[in-house]
Amino acid sequence: MGNLKQPIIKTEESVISITGLHKSFDDLPVLKGIDFKLIKGENVAVLGKSGSGKSVLIKIIVGLLKPDSGEVLVLGKHVNHIAGKELDALRLRIGFSFQNSALYDSMNVYQNLAFPLTMNMKNRSKSDVDHAVNEVLDAVGLANKIKQMPSDLSGGQRKRIGIARTLILKPEIMLYDEPTSGLDPITSAEIIELINEVQQQYNTSSVIITHDLTCAKNTGNRIAMLHKGKFLKVGTFNEVFESDNEHMKGFFNYNFTQ
């Protein structure tokens, strides 16, 4: 199955622990008793078709949605039992890389990156902000784009700037929502490499929501297959896809992986 990402985890300390998570919208159940752990320092790729509940899961992790039942423990905090300033403080420790990059079209790259710092850390000096912006731009390989507007960037560059804006607050956890969606194979490979570099350089623990097997295989220390609101299997890429489960076989055969 090609070169797989090798586990580098040296601890069993969990930064996300979810038990018995249920979430419905009206009468439609989306998550049906999810149990999940993210170990400090690892990347877990959550695979599944559209509508399987992947994006709902990460929105619950950051407190954008409330679960109907179950416990969600993130960095020692019970997300479903906190609000206001306590929830805001927790979110500063979590980086959320949106599928569409979520850049402000009216701001150039520097302004987009500086905005989280000036909003959340108002006592930062101009030189501190400049240093932080240049540091994350170097990390994503786009130091020469600092004065560009988002409309002047390619799709892959916007993804990189979106990740840089997330990194500027030095999060402990990264949540990636479909990081390779809409990208050509070469640009997807660059984003995959960047996700792994972020894990190494910033010591992040990450959940990578994707339906892209190539992305999952090359970024995930573990893979979690979500189907109709439940995890069918959690393990290494080979452990998941050497299963006899017909759904996982079909998912693998439908995707092209290198």
Topology at a glance:
Elements (H helix, E strand, L loop, with lengths): L13 E12 L2 E12 L3 E5 L6 H8 L7 E6 L2 E2 L5 H8 L2 E4 L11 H12 L5 H14 L15 H13 L5 E5 L7 H18 L2 E6 L2 H7 L2 E6 L2 E6 L1 H5 L4 H9 L4
Parallel strand pairs: 3-8, 3-9, 6-7, 7-8
Antiparallel strand pairs: 1-2, 1-4, 4-5, 9-10
Helix pairs in contact: 3-4, 3-5, 4-5, 5-6
Structure write-up:
With 258 residues, the protein is α/β, with parallel strands linked by helices. It has 9 helices and 10 strands. It is 36% helix and 25% strand. The strands form 2 sheets. It has a 6-stranded mixed β-sheet, with helices on both faces. Strands 2-1-4-5 form a 4-stranded antiparallel β-sheet, with helices on one face. Strand 1 (14-25) and strand 2 form a beta hairpin. The chain is globular, with a radius of gyration of 18 Å. 39% of the residues are buried.
Strand order of the largest sheet: 6-7-8-3-9-10
Mean pLDDT: 89
Q: Class by helix and strand content?
A: alpha/beta
Largest sheet: 6 strands, mixed
- Rg over alpha carbons: 18 Å
Strand coverage percent: 15-25%
- Silhouette: globular
Stretches where pLDDT falls below 50 for ≥5 residues?
none
Span between termini = 7 Å
What's the tally of helices? Answer: 9
Oligomer: single chain
Total DSSP E strands: 10
- Compressed to H and E, one letter per element, the order equals EEEHEEHEHHHEHEHEEHH
Overall helicity: 25-40%
